Amino acid sequence: MNSELHKIIVLEKDPSYQAIYKEYFKQYDEFHLAAIYPSAIEALQQYDKIQPDIIVSEIDLLYANGIDSITLFKKKNTDIKIIMVSKNPSFDTIKKAFKNGANGYLTKPLSNKRLYNALQAIKIEGAAMGHDIIKQIIQNFRKKTYAFFSSRENQIIDYLCKGATYKDIANKLFVTTSTVNFHIQNIYEKLNVNSKSEALYKLQHM
C-alpha cells in the first residue's frame, strides 16, 4: 500500500449510503475515496485503472453478492484489503466472508469514527472487526465447543493447549491423574485420535 495516501473503492447500491460515505471521506486525510459503485462488476471493470488499496463492500449489491465477489478482487491483487459491511450479519455469513478472503467485517449503521478506525486497523494490522462481530464469533465458537465436549473436558483441553502435563492438570482441578486420563481418553475418542500431538493438531484446526 501507498504509505501516505490510500485509495479506496466503496461498493454500495443505496444512494443514501453512498452520500454518507462521500461525507465521511471528506474528513480523512490519508484515505482517498477513488470511486463508489453499486455493483462489483463495475468495480472490477475499473479496477486496473484505479488500483485501489482497500475495498469497502456492502454484501447486498446489484447483480452479484459482495461476499462472492471477494475472490474476484483477490485474483486481481492478492494483497488487496477488503472490509465487508452488513446490516444484520449471521455467523455463517461472517464465516463465509473470511473464508473467501475478507480482511474485515463491520455492521451498519457505520459512524465516521468506526469506519476510520477500521481503515486504520486495516492499514496497520491488516485486519478489522467490530466489537459486535468479535463477540458473535466468540459466542458461536463457545457454543460449538461445549456442544461437543463436556465442561470438564473443555477445562482439560484448555490446559493441554497451554502445555500442562497430566499431573499439572490434576493439581489444578483437584482430581487424580487417573481421572484426568479418563477424560483425555474420552477427548481422544471424540476427536478420533490416538495421541496428545494428534489431539492438539486437530483442536488447532477445528
Question: What would your notes on this structure say?
Answer:
- The structure is a single chain.
- The protein is α/β, with parallel strands linked by helices and 206 residues long.
- Helices cover 57% and strands 15% of the residues.
- It is built from 10 helices and 6 strands, in the order βαβαβαβαβαβααααα.
- It has a 6-stranded parallel β-sheet, with helices on both faces.
- Helix 4 links the parallel strand 4 and strand 5 (104-107).
- Helix 3 (66-76) runs parallel beside helix 4, helix 7 (151-161) packs across helix 9 and helix 8 (166-173) packs across helix 9 (177-191).
- The longest helix has 18 residues, at 131-148.
- The protein is elongated.
Provide tags for this entry.
single chain, 206 residues, alpha/beta, six-stranded parallel beta sheet, 57% helix
Helical segment count? 10
Strand percent estimate: 5-15%
The averaged pLDDT comes out at 88
End-to-end separation: 33 Å
